[in-house]
Amino acid sequence: MSLKRILPAAGPARVLALAQLTNSIGDGAYYVCSALYFTRVVGLSAPQIGLGLTLAWAVGSVAGVPLGHVADRRGARGTAVVLAVATGVSVGAFLFIRSFGPFVVAACCYATSQCGLAATRQALLAGLVEKAERTGVLAYLQSTLNAGLAVGAALGGVALRYDSRAAYLAVFAMDAVSFLACAQLLRRLPAVAAAVEETAAGEPRLAVLRDRPYAVVTLLNTVLLLRMPLLSLAIPLWTVQRTSAPSWTVSALLLLNTVAVMLFQVRAARRVTGLETAARTVRWSGAVLLASCVVFAMSGAGMSGWAAGAVLLAGASLQVVGEMMQSAGSWQLAFDLAPDDKQGQYQGFFGTGVAVARTLGPLLLTALVVTWGVPGWLLLGGLFLVAGVAMGPAARWAERSSTPALVPLAPRTP
Q: Terminus of the chain with fewer CB atoms < 10 Å: N or C?
């Protein structure tokens, strides 16, 4: 596959994509090997790992807003470089920990740096890319992210093959270096001028915390982001425990998702050009995700292994279409509904949806899908549909309440 398919045109957008590609390769290997590293090398139990990571992402989700505010006021490029280095140092710290307490501290530093870096990258993109082009550039970034994760996962697979302390240490060292390389690439970007702080009397510096319409948009997007642990946890468990499909189907479903996003996310984002098209795209994503839940539920109807596998692939195909639509629409809403001088803190707040979905999603989805079965699938699909449909009214409310002049959302046509 040509790199031109996943990289934007030369300029700041391409540098952002290369930085994303660089650290996602390290992250891909980290995700594959981290559980075994923490158990076999560090010596932690599974409950300790789960508790530590839950605490870490909870801290990280709270830190995203103030770190985004720092990017707004101190400059997005410098803040992003510092946080990329901090993430690399945090990963490097995992090489030296051998007990639960230091693990929690390192994990909190890692999650805080990651959440802050995500927010400052968004602020950096907002400062370097024209408003009409942001969603398209984010689509390229998502494609490079998936490409990097796929390469990193393959490298992590090599470490799993050797299953040795040295191999796992090499993976963590590679991930740390990948973030340092990411920081070096971010330094090549033009500087983004810090916003002049103009706080009205009685207005908090973190204005996003009082922006109720934007909070509702973020909440609805968080519901739709439950698709993330759905793919990584609930569907694999459902496949193995509740269907007769062969176990390797799990790998096929993950591969389908990765390749589809890598190849088609840019194309899916081209239809999103403003608030109206973004809200409509998110609404349709809710309907498609509902359809995918219905199909997934059908796979547990006692059919043969190959038939169940085919139904699961059909459900995964619908799921990835809904994912790409939801991503494209939500990116546009997140940027266009945020004040230009507060993009960092607003993107940090919007990004908490990812951390919340990752923290609470596994418990919720295993209870709904794996334990409850078909009724749980239907309830989950209904949640997706309601969130998608409600996004339009919520976005119109946020548009009316915002200070900057935005392109109006057209009334929904029957």
A: C
Low-confidence ranges of the chain (pLDDT < 50): 1, 201, 403-408, 410, 412-414
User: Can you give the pLDDT at residue 247?
Assistant: 83
Q: Is there a contact between 175 and 27 (Cβ–Cβ < 8 Å)?
A: yes
For 73-119, give the secondary structure using H, E and C. Answer: HHCHHHHHHHHHHHHHHHHHHCCCCCCHHHHHHHHHHHHHHHHHHHH
Q: Domain range holding 397?
A: 210-402
Report the distance separating Cα 362 and Cα 360, nearest Å: 6
Q: Quick check: is 253 in a domain?
A: yes
pLDDT tens for 294-326 read 999 999 988 999 999 999 999 999 999 999 999
Residue 138: name the closest of 269, 50, 247 by CA: 269
Residues 114 and 247 in one domain: no
Is residue 169 domain-resident?
yes
**How many domains are there within the chain?**
2
Distance in angstroms (rounded) separating the CA atoms of residues 158 and 163:
9
What is the rounded CA–CA span in Å between residue 29 and residue 222?
26
Return the pLDDT at 405.
41
pTM value?
Answer: 0.83
Same domain? 136 vs 184: yes
**Left (φ > 0), alpha (ψ -120 to 50) or beta: where does 302 sit?**
left
Instruction: Give the integer Cα–Cα distance in Å for 89 and 3.
Output: 29
21, 33, 205, 285, 382 from 153: Cα distances, Å: 13, 9, 41, 28, 33
Residue 146 and residue 248 share a domain? no
